[in-house]
Amino acid sequence: MKKVSFRDDVLPLKNRLYRLALRITLNPAEAEDAVQDTLIKVWERREEWERIESIEAYALTICRNISLDMAGKAGRGNVQLNEELSTSNVQCSMFNVQTPDENQEQKERIALVRKLMDTLPEVQRSIMELRDIEGKTYQEIANILRLNESQVKVYLHRARTGIRQQAEKIEKYGL
Predict the structure, then answer these.
(1) Backbone φ/ψ region at 44: left (φ over 0), alpha (ψ -120 to 50), beta
(2) Are 28 and 108 in contact (CB under 8 A)?
(3) Cα angle vertex 141, ends 18, 74, to 5°?
(4) pLDDT in tens, 81-100
(5) Strand, coil or helix: what is 114?
(6) Is 14 helix (H, G, I), strand (E, B) or coil?
(7) 3-class DSSP state of 12
(8) What is the rounded distance in angstroms from the CA atom of residue 8 to the CA atom of residue 30?
(9) What is the radius of gyration, based on Cα positions, of the chain?
(10) CA pair distance 123, 68, nearest whole angstrom
(11) Rounded CA gap, 124 and 121, in Å?
(12) pLDDT tens-place string over residues 145-166
């Protein structure tokens, strides 16, 4: 196991922790508090770092739990996708330029997916966000959410299938 440094291994995670906390709490001040509490808890458990397989997964798990506690105390249920994450700029090249109509259609599809993701159960929504937005591996997600890898795959499949079916239904019938 490699030696973990707070400055080199933990502090660089603060932006990723903030995005996760903001996604759950929907409040920038609470997200900052969650990140600060996470960093404090990780620091207080520095004797355990050598035994931890992934300090990143460890920190994300703590942050997620703190954020869920904060969101639960505030009485919030479902949360919405962060606007900055889901409406990323469309990259244009010389050969792939979108017309304003295509750009608007893409924004509408993103808004629809965001709306449908908000209807998913918390576990499926968290897994989909970690996999499709944050780009985590199945093993990392399993470590963060304390599930096994096959459960992560099943939940992700169910989430994607549900969103696909709902999107097709809406596009077909305009509901």
Answers:
(1) alpha
(2) no
(3) 45
(4) 444 433 334 344 344 566 78
(5) helix
(6) helix
(7) helix
(8) 25
(9) 18
(10) 12
(11) 6
(12) 889 999 999 999 999 999 888 8
- Please name each of the domains of the chain with its CATH number: 6-73 (1.10.1740), 96-173 (1.10.10.10)
To the nearest 10 degrees (0 to 180), the angle between helices 28-44 and 14-25 is: 130
36 backbone dihedrals φ, ψ, rounded to 5°: -60, -45
B/e letters for 123-135, b = 16+ CB within 10 Å, e = fewer, are ebbbbbbbbebbe
Q: Which of 9, 7, 125 is nearest to 58 (CA)?
A: 9
d(CA 21, CA 25): 6
